[in-house]
Amino acid sequence: MPFIAVHAGAGKFNEEDVKELKSVCRLACDKAMVKLKDGCDVSEAITVAISALENSPLTNCGTGSCLTYKGTAECDASIINGKGDFASVGAVSGVKNPIVLAHQLLLNQSKGLMSLGRIPPMCLCGDGAHQWAIENGVPVCNPDDLITEEAKEVYLDHIERLRREDAKEGSEQCAAKRRKVNDSQSKLDTVGAVCIDANGLIGAGVSSGGISLKHTGRIGQAGVYRCGCWAKRHSDSSQIASSASGVGEYLIKTQLAKEITTSLVGQSVTIQNAFHQTFLDNVILAGCNTKEAGVLVLHVSPSGSIELSWVHSTDDMLIAYNSNDKSKSFMSQLEEKAVPGIRTTAGWLSF
Amino acid sequence: MPFIAVHAGAGKFNEEDVKELKSVCRLACDKAMVKLKDGCDVSEAITVAISALENSPLTNCGTGSCLTYKGTAECDASIINGKGDFASVGAVSGVKNPIVLAHQLLLNQSKGLMSLGRIPPMCLCGDGAHQWAIENGVPVCNPDDLITEEAKEVYLDHIERLRREDAKEGSEQCAAKRRKVNDSQSKLDTVGAVCIDANGLIGAGVSSGGISLKHTGRIGQAGVYRCGCWAKRHSDSSQIASSASGVGEYLIKTQLAKEITTSLVGQSVTIQNAFHQTFLDNVILAGCNTKEAGVLVLHVSPSGSIELSWVHSTDDMLIAYNSNDKSKSFMSQLEEKAVPGIRTTAGWLSF
């Protein structure tokens, strides 16, 4: 029964990083599977897996996050289980593993009301989230410890290009010629995990360093309920969980993680069609460009059979999984010359 | 066609404040209606109305907000229109009118992509939100300027009770005896507005100082998409908007503002039944106490006829409206001896 899968984000990967990233993703699954076999619960396994991804300088979360316009690292993360327990952190600095902070918030909620009947917080952001980490024994660090040399280099390059572009724009007002900041030099988006534990409870999580040069304080889908991750145990005892990656503001508007599962459950719709309905063709995104996203979905039937499926409108999506055996990893790619944000590719594995 | 309605929160009001609060709510509607008659758009009218509520020391938003555990004022606010434009701020300090900041974020999005193809932020929190306000001409203030003498008194009383309770709990572990902090001495929750402008576009907004003694950085429903406010223009050209007030964490989990409108549109369901389905009887809140909330809904038919309806499980909900005439205000109340969080009351007006 225990099963874990992770993704390193939906985007466009640098070829030279892929081998190591695959290895990082398999390691994340290995670590989580050890925990799952020990009987740990789904949220702990997700936290272990995503922590491993956060600790890799190659992923855009935790250590190695994209930098803000001010040159700081600010992270979003969230976690959910099929019982409906959820916690998130947004724009938090100086916390080594943002997913650990989200997990601790989740655990704290399970203790019930605080003194004077206060309801434990579900979403914490910024300095207050950092302060809560200190008070609750979640490891904190110097905010600069999350900044890698490579992230700094990319930041300086982006800032320089921004200055050139802004100067040009001041004289030419040529907004139409704007180039995207998230090109090949940029980090990919939100990483995440979907999981079912030995007790048969499903869950999901996400973690993100956000977009390069974002304004400080900006929260993307990884910090917002229903948008970055989703999990639900249905009344027929089937369960579904998802973890979404992509352009944060669009994933919030479409509540992609939740809505794609609603389209899939109990309906004879492919994940590709569900992705088109809920995201690419969603009227709420009419007029938006760069509709780049990807979703990893775990579906467990009442009998316990497991299906892992994925879909993305980005060039690449890197996935690894462990079904109580050896971890495997693979890259899903759009067909050659297909336009990201318009075309999609999808796949599935059954266990 | 232009119509504006506001609420001063769903909760339990101090009798001595009610007269002035009603006057504040009518003034908010008056100000917005002047703007609406001048042809201003729905989001501007909402901002004018909610700013008037924020400026009153009697409401739990802007000036007079409940204080955090650290004694600071941190505000959430969001705004949405029927076209799907949305912006929110969370846990922001030192901004005189948080709704003005949310509105400015909304306007900023309409300018399209920023240089280098960056997507304008939709959700900003904490210091980053304050910084964005400064950079974009949104009036800021000394963080202490939002703290009223009364809020400070309530804070000191709550802190003292918390210390006593925590000491007692340390010795007796009597969690069952915990008293609620949001008793008669506490401020009520999120205020908000629903509106349709002269051009026939609907919208909604909310603003909140959050719960007394909340952890710094905590974001409640007023800062989260779909949870505090919602507005949508449907394909049959009917439009619906809502503004929700109550226990933030529960309103986020149920996405109350959005979900109650989904239950109402195209279905022969009363607002009271819709509230039970989406909130009180929602399985996601199984085991939760204090299910206190209220929602104000504006429904405009394809022919332009307007229905304003409301429902709450709190003792009171204070509402005012202006249908292009003189502003009117009223208090909706649970029947005597009905238990808040379990029983509801509802009503509607047609125009």
Account of the 3D structure:
The structure is a homodimer of 351-residue chains. Chain A is an alpha+beta fold and 351 residues long. Chain A contains eight helices and 13 strands. The longest helix of chain A is centred in the middle third of the chain and has 24 residues, at 149-172. Mean pLDDT of chain A is 92; it is low at 172-179. The interface between A and B is large, with 63 and 63 residues.
Reconstruct the topology from this structure.
The structure is a homodimer of 351-residue chains.
Chain A: E1 3-11, H1 15-37, H2 42-55, E2 75-81, E3 86-92, H3 98-109, E4 123-125, H4 126-135, H5 149-172, E5 191-196, E6 202-208, E7 229-233, E8 239-246, H6 248-254, H7 256-264, H8 271-280, E9 293-300, E10 306-312, E11 316-322, E12 328-333, E13 345-350
Parallel strand pairs in A: 3-4
Antiparallel strand pairs in A: 1-5, 1-11, 2-3, 2-6, 5-6, 7-8, 8-9, 9-10, 10-13, 11-12
Helix pairs in contact in A: 1-2, 2-3, 7-8
Organism (chains A, B): Amphimedon queenslandica
Protein name (chains A, B): Threonine aspartase 1
Active site (chains A, B): 190 (nucleophile)
**Oligomeric form:** homodimer
Low-confidence stretches of chain A: 172-179
| Rg over alpha carbons of chain A | 19 Å
Which sequence of SSEs, written as H and E, runs from N to C of chain A? EHHEEHEHHEEEEHHHEEEEE
Short characterization:
With 351 residues, chain A is α+β, with helices and mostly antiparallel strands. Helix content of chain A is 31%, strand content 25%. Chain A is built from 8 helices and 13 strands.
